[in-house]
Write a structure and sequence with these properties.
With 179 residues, this protein is mainly α. Helices cover 53% and strands 0% of the residues. 21% of the residues are buried.
Length: 179
């Protein structure tokens, strides 16, 4: 859960004096546990923050944007242990290629080329910032738009976005009141 986004939502919701809204905070990784969090209660509405937004790109320190240099982070939850740097510097060539294919829709040949370039570069020194990664991607012939898609793929993996959403969608209907 992005702490800044939660505070923003709480402020907006609290401005409604008649509101009976109760905010339950849990991380993206625990969306699938919503039925345990609610217990015997049911919800009329469920609002979840499931992805990146413009605020993430505006904050250069978070490492989401290809346009500003920052540490390779990309975590929504700053307390999570897996960052983009972890992925770039420790995943195998095969794991990186799979991420680029599945979340970036790159052909296997190009995904392998990109993964090889990253693995080759990190043998010399860790890839620590967004411009370092962007330079490697540019050296493989990717322009800014295609490189941004690689950043997206890494962000999706960093936050386990699709797996957590899938788990949530399986359990949330049971958490809603009928009608």
């Amino acid at each position: 859960m992005d702490e800044k986004m939660l505070q923003k939502a709480q402020k907006i919701l609290s401005e409604n004096e008649e509101s009976k809204i109760q905010i339950l905070e849990f991380t993206l990784a625990s969306y699938a546990d919503i039925n345990h969090i609610l217990g015997d209660r049911k919800a009329d509405y469920i609002l979840i923050d499931i992805g990146v937004n413009l605020e993430h790109f505006k904050d250069p320190s978070r490492g989401f944007s290809i346009k500003s240099n920052a540490d390779l982070d990309m975590r929504y939850n700053q307390n999570a242990t897996k960052s983009a740097s972890t992925i770039i510097n420790s995943y195998s060539l095969q794991e990186l290629s799979k991420i680029f294919q599945e979340y970036g829709d790159f052909a296997e040949k190009k995904a392998d080329e990109l993964a090889q370039a990253i693995c080759k570069e990190r043998k010399h020194s860790p890839i620590q910032d967004t411009f370092g990664l962007k330079t490697i991607l540019n050296s493989c012939g990717l322009g800014e738009k295609a490189a941004a898609v690689i950043f997206q793929a890494i962000r999706v993996e960093t936050n386990d976005e699709l797996e957590n959403l899938k788990k949530f969608l399986e359990v949330f209907p049971d958490c809603l009141t009928s009608g």
